[in-house]
Amino acid sequence: MHPADAHDSIRVLGARENNLKSVDVELPKRRLTVFTGVSGSGKSSLVFDTIAAESQRMINETYPAFVQGFMPGLARPDVDRMEGLTTAIIVGQDRMGANQRSTVGTATDANALLRKLFSEIATPHIGSPNAYSFNVPSVTGSGMIKVEKGGGATQKEHKEFHVLGGMCPRCEGIGQVSDLDLGELFDETKSLNEGPFKIPGYNADGWNVRMFSQSGLFDPDKPIKDYSPREMENFLHRENAKIKFNGINITFNGIIPSVRKSFLSKDREAMQPHVRAFVDRAVTFQSCPECGGTRLAPEARSSTIGGLHIGEVCDLQITDLLEWVRGIDDARVQPLVRGLTELLEAFVEIGLGYLSLSRPAGTLSGGEAQRTKMIRHLGSSLTDVTYIFDEPTAGLHPADVERMNVLLGQLRDKGNTVLVVEHKPEVIAVADHVVDLGPRAGSGGGRIVFEGTVDELRQADTLTGLHFDDRARLKEVVRKSKGAIEVRGAKLHNLQGVDVDVPLGCLAVLTGVAGSGKSSLVDCFPRDLGIVHVDQSPIKGSRRSNPATYTSLLDPVRKAFAKANGVKPALFSANSEGACPSCKGNGVIITELGFMSTVTTGCLDCGGRRFQDEVLAHTLGGRSIADIYEMSVDDALRFFSEGESRVPAACKILQALVDVGLGYITLGQGLDSLSGGERQRLKLATHMAEKGGILVLDEPTTGLHLADVDQLLGLLDQLVDKGKSVIVVEHHQAVMAHADWIIDMGPGAGHDGGRVVFEGTPSELIVSGTVTGEHLARYVQG
Question: What is the Cβ-side half-sphere exposure of residue 712, based on CA atoms within 13 angstroms?
Answer without folding.
Answer: 29
